[in-house]
Design a protein that fits this description.
With about 350 residues, the chain is an alpha/beta fold. The protein contains eleven helices and ten strands.
Amino acid sequence: MLSYISAKEAADKWNISQRRVSVLCNENRIDGAMMVGNMWIIPSTAQKPVDKRTLKNEDNKNVVLRPFVKWVGGKSQVTDEIEKFIFSDNKVITKYVEPMVGGGALAFDLLSKCNFERIYLSDSNAELINAYNVIKTDVKELINKLTEKQLVFLPMAENGRKLYYYSSRDKFNGIKLSEKTAVEKAALFIFLNKTCFNGLYRVNKRGQFNVPMGAYKNPTICDEANLLNISSALKNVDIVCGDYTLSEDFIDENTFVYIDPPYRPISETSGFTSYNVDAFDDNEQYRLAGYIDRINAKGAKFVLSNSDPKNTNPEDNFFEDLYKNYSIERISAARSVNSKGGSRGKINELLIHN
C-alpha cells in the first residue's frame, strides 16, 4: 500500500523549504502529490525534482565570459574544482555571493552557466569596483576610450610606450574617483592593468598605483566583445564596494559563498598582500574565520581559498587549527606572481568548505 508524507517531511528529506515543496506540487512536478484539505501529501517514494532554476538550459548557447583584468591569484585554472561544491548535494542554491571578487574568474564562469535568482559581488578595492560598475552601466563609452588608448599605444616604439604608460599612471593617480571621472578612471585602470608588469595591482602607502610597465608586445587593451557580454551579464547583479562582511545580510540558507582573500604568505618573498593600503595579516585571517562561522550558522554553503603553508613548512597547522570545524582539501595550482617566469611551478592551495 502506498504511503504518504507531508510537505514538511518532504522538505526535511530533500533539504529544501516547505514553501518550495508546495511550489513544486503546484507546478505538478512531484509525481503522485495531491491536495488533501488545505495541505499537500506526497508519496514517500517520490524523488526530489531536479531544480531548474540554477542551471541554464543546455540547449541555449551560453556566452563565455572572461575576466576583464588580470588579477593576482586569479581562479581561471581551478574553477571546475570550486564549482563542484555548488551542486555536490541536493541543496537548492538560488543566490551566489563573492565578497572578495578580484578579477571575477569564478563569478564570470558561473554567470555564463547558471541562473541564480540574485548575485552579490563586492571588493574593498574602489578602483576595481568602479570598473565593474562602469562596464555594467557605461560600457560603450568605456570601449571608446579603451579603443583610443589601444590605437595610440600599440604602434609605438618602446620609448614611446614608456612615456605613454607612465604619463597614464600619473594621470590615474592624480584623478580623484567620482561620478564624473568614473569612466576615465575605469579606462585608465584597465589600460594600466593590461600593460603593467604581470598585471599586478599594487599601491604605496599613499594609496598610489606604483607598478612599472610590463614587456608585452601586443596586449589586448580593448576586448570589445567580452566587455559587451560582461555588461549584459552584470545587469541584475548587486555590485558593492566595501568590506566583505557587508554581504552577511544578503546571505541565507540558499546561498553559495566563495571567498578568495589575499593569501597568507608561505615565504618571506611571497607576501604580496598590498592590493589596497591596508595589509591582510593574520589578524585579518582570524576576522575572516569569524565571518565564515557566521555564514555557516546561517546554513549557507561556502568555499574559501587560501595558500597551503605546508608547501614550505610541513609543521605549519595555521589553517588546520583555524578551520578545524570544516573540511580542508588541497588542490594543485600554478603560481601567478613571481619575478622569474621559470619559477612558476605547481604548488598546493587550500579549499576550505562546509
